[in-house]
């Protein structure tokens, strides 16, 4: 199946981590009800960050991808998920998978993870995407945050080539690496190979999906983050990053989709990393754009809340200057 983020579930079960004692979603969830046909109707907008035409996981698609990726099907069957590739089983399996996505979009991240893991390789994308969101926005303990992100990376790596079957899976892995790279020391980042892995994986993802807003914004943020850590000269000579490339990636991201909160606050951060106070007006404008976006799912709600905190900090800093 296309949702093959953790293809070794059958032999390396994640069940031990399925009952994480995660905090409940802290914001109002009423607007994020995608029960019944609401999910299919809203799907293109809900998944717009993954790029155009991210496939809806209905029964027809489940059967198609089970045929296309026999190794994933084999592991799904071995995982005891109740789906063996037969068309008559696909409807039930698809309904369960759609419910995992509903939990992700609603902010029931622990439920999304637990229910996703029960579906074998087919449920790993929403399960682990929920884990990334939870780690980044709701886990206050840095050590635990890093553990959660490292777990995502570890199991994605175990999936091997199967991860290439899904652009969301590819993005989830590199997103986790990029966030760890921001917080870990330079020697640790170098030892883990993130400085070469992140651009390589983003290049591979963009080769497949050139207009994926998430990946483009992440690439721009990566360029800015390297400049922040090592400076523009070392960054350009050693890692091939530059302010011009940062601007190009964010520009492409905004042209693809301008209504994603994360793109605007990431750009505001990047402007500060690269230009300091010289582009403070532009950074302020993008933070204001981020907080003005009406979120349509739990992740976006957390992103808008994060942008609001950044905006208050930015305004307070400007007022004190």
TrEMBL record:
Signal sequence bounds: 1-18
Alphabetical UniProt keywords: Signal
Query: In terms of domain of life, where is this protein from?
Result: Bacteria
Keyword Signal (UniProt)? yes
The molecule here is called Tetratricopeptide repeat protein
* Source species of the chain: Pseudomonas fluvialis
């Amino acid at each position: 199946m296309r949702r093959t983020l953790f293809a070794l579930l059958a032999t390396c079960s994640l069940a031990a981590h399925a009952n994480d004692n995660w905090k409940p979603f802290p914001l109002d969830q009423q607007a994020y009800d995608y029960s019944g046909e609401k999910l299919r109707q809203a799907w293109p907008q809900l998944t717009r960050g993954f790029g155009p035409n991210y496939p809806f996981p209905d029964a027809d698609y489940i059967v198609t991808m089970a045929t296309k990726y026999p190794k994933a099907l084999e592991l799904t069957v071995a995982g005891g998920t109740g789906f063996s590739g037969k068309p008559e089983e696909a409807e039930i399996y698809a309904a369960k998978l759609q419910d995992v996505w509903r939990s992700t979009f609603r902010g029931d991240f622990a439920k999304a993870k637990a229910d996703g893991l029960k579906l074998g390789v087919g449920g790993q994308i929403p399960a682990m995407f929920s884990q990334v969101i939870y780690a980044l926005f709701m886990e206050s303990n840095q050590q635990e945050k890093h553990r959660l992100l490292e777990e995502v990376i570890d199991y994605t790596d175990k999936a091997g080539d199967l991860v290439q079957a899904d652009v969301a899976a590819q993005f989830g892995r590199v997103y986790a690496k990029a966030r760890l790279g921001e917080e870990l020391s330079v020697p640790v980042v170098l030892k883990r190979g993130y400085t070469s892995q992140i651009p390589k994986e983003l290049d591979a993802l963009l080769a497949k999906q050139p207009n994926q807003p998430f990946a483009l914004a992440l690439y721009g943020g990566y360029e800015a983050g390297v400049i922040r850590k090592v400076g523009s000269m070392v960054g350009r000579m050693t890692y091939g990053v530059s302010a011009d490339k940062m601007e190009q990636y964010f520009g492409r991201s905004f042209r693809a989709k301008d209504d994603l909160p994360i793109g605007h606050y990431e750009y505001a951060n990047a402007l500060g990393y690269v230009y300091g106070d010289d582009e403070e007006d532009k950074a302020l404008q993008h933070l204001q754009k981020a907080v003005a976006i009406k979120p349509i799912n739990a992740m976006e709600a957390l992103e808008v809340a994060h942008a609001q905190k950044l905006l208050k900090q930015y305004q307070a800093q400007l007022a004190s200057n």
